[in-house]
Amino acid sequence: MRCIQRIRAGVLFSVAILTFGCQNSETQIEQTDAWALADSIRKSIIVPRFPDKIFNVLDYGALGNGQNKDGAAINRAIEACHAAGGGTVLVPVGNYQTGAVYLKSNVNLHLEKGAVLLFSTNPEDYLPVVHTRWEGVELMNYTPLIYAYKEKNIAITGAGILD
User: Fold this and answer.
1) Which contacts (CB < 8 Å, 24+ apart) does range 8-12 have?
2) Which among 7, 52, 73, 109 counts the fewest CB atoms within 10 Å?
3) Is 80 helix (H, G, I), strand (E, B) or coil?
4) 9: buried, middle or exposed (CB in 10 Å: 19+, 13-18, 0-12)?
């Protein structure tokens, strides 16, 4: 038994030395390239801007009581905001049961502190299937919880919760 423990310890020590020795030159180059890439990505990000218009989901039929399905009302508010040229879709304090939420261009979905989107566990609430990615593979699949395809200038903001 002691012999096996010594062999294991020796193997681990050897692997640690080999790993440390191999990381010096190549890893430094990779890290430098990665930081340069990260910096170029950061510089290319444009902060979204939205018109000063508010579309409260309660005005579109949402109740926020945690018992009624509010997804259709949330999506109506998003559609109205988009049709009006953009703005902020406000989700005030409350619990909103929903399926998929479809973001549109020029829409900021803002969840106030105390607002909770309670996403359904029923697969039917995520139909129809849409063009999406799963683990890097493009495919047709259930709609993600929050979905936008070929949309621009969108955001999800606020201190609310996506559950």
Assistant:
1) none
2) 52
3) helix
4) exposed
